């Protein structure tokens, strides 16, 4: 198995809407190219940052199609998050993702009803069977999914040879160590602890704030592997402070980050989809200050 393609910084892809709130295919392609040009290892499409829970199956297909179109001929890893809150739609998205040639599919567990582990395993294996030639990555995000990944569930899923790893967004770094001990390729999820996650054995990171400061996270990754820990720690701390500032607005974090992206000269991705709360006037100052903090860090460390 080629594990090299999973090693590095993989931004979670943002949703892009036009003025009517529909998927903006042109902006999707522009964002894919914009991020690829920043030197990231890959893109994670259709996850939390992509507002997947508020999009239809057809919209999610459309986004992935345009990402793949934009990245044609580029050495950029694409991981497609395909989970819906029912198995039928999830299988449809999995098969569609494989037809487009993604590197891997990923999935959170089903949310709302608390299911036993054997039912969660059946849900994931059904998706994997619909994309039988594609790697499968478990997405562990208990604070949102309401279900925490367990060693016993990982053991069960590892019986499936296409299950290669875990995107771990739980906060305890210990969890990363557990999945690595199980033989899983593991991605650090919480952006605030990328450096700690790498030290615990993560091969890289998949993060929601990576798209507005990819250069800083790429630098952390590079410095870690060079053993230059003190500078890596300083950049990680700056990233944490920037995240705190971005989270201080009234609107949704993704609405603020889309405004930051616009200030950086990136593509206009529109707003966020209701019931997520959109950018308000006071948030523009939060976005501006966050943008300035990012630019200051880039000048200092890059």
Question: How would you explain this protein's 3D organization?
Answer:
The chain is built from 12 helices and 8 strands. It is of the alpha/beta class and 302 residues long. Strands 1-8-7-6-5-4-3-2 form an 8-stranded parallel β-sheet. Strand 4, helix 4 (117-130) and strand 5 form a beta-alpha-beta unit. Helix 9 (214-226) runs antiparallel to helix 10. The protein is globular. The model has no long low-confidence stretch (mean pLDDT 97).
Topology of this protein?
Blueprint: E1 8-11, H1 25-36, E2 42-45, H2 57-70, E3 77-81, H3 87-100, E4 104-107, H4 117-130, E5 135-140, H5 142-145, H6 151-157, E6 163-168, H7 173-181, E7 185-188, H8 194-199, E8 204-207, H9 214-226, H10 229-246, H11 253-263, H12 281-301
Parallel strand pairs: 1-8, 2-3, 3-4, 4-5, 5-6, 6-7, 7-8
Helix pairs in contact: 1-2, 2-3, 3-4, 9-10, 10-12, 11-12
Q: Which overall shape is indicated by the principal axes computed on the Cα atoms? A: globular
How far from one another are the termini?
33 Å
Instruction: Quote the beta fraction.
Output: 5-15%
Q: Counting H and I runs of at least 4 residues, what is the number of helices?
A: 12
SSE string, helices as H and strands as E: EHEHEHEHEHHEHEHEHHHH
As residue ranges, the low-confidence spans are: none
Q: Walk across the major sheet and give the strand order.
A: 1-8-7-6-5-4-3-2
In total, the number of strands is 8
Largest sheet: 8 strands, parallel
Index terms:
12 helices, alpha/beta, globular, eight-stranded parallel sheet, 302 residues
């Amino acid at each position: 198995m080629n594990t090299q393609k999973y090693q590095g910084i993989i931004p979670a892809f943002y949703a892009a809407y036009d003025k009517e709130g529909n998927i903006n295919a042109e902006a999707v392609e522009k964002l894919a190219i914009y991020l690829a040009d920043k030197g990231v290892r890959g893109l994670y499409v259709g996850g939390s940052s992509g507002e997947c829970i508020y999009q239809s199956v057809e919209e999610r297909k459309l986004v992935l199609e345009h990402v793949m179109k934009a990245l044609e001929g580029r050495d950029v890893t694409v991981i497609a998050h395909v989970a819906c809150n029912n198995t039928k739609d999830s299988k449809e998205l999995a098969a569609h993702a494989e037809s487009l040639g993604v590197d891997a599919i990923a999935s959170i567990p089903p949310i709302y009803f608390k299911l036993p582990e054997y039912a969660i395993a059946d849900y994931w294996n059904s998706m994997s069977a619909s994309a039988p030639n594609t790697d499968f990555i478990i997405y562990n995000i208990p604070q949102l999914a309401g279900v925490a990944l367990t060693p016993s569930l990982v053991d069960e899923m590892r019986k499936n040879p296409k299950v290669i790893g875990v995107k771990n967004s739980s906060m305890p770094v210990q969890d990363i160590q557990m999945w690595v001990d199980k033989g899983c390729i593991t991605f650090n999820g919480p952006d605030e602890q990328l450096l700690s996650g790498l030290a615990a054995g993560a091969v890289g990171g998949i993060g929601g704030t990576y798209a507005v400061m990819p250069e800083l996270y790429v630098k952390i990754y590079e410095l870690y592997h060079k053993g230059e820990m003190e500078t890596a720690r300083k950049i990680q701390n700056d990233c944490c402070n920037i995240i705190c500032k971005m989270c201080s607005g009234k609107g949704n974090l993704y609405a603020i980050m889309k405004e930051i992206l616009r200030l950086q000269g990136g593509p206009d991705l529109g707003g966020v989809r209701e019931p997520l709360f959109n950018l308000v006037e006071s948030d523009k100052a939060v976005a501006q200050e966050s943008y300035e903090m990012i630019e200051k860090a880039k000048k200092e460390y890059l």
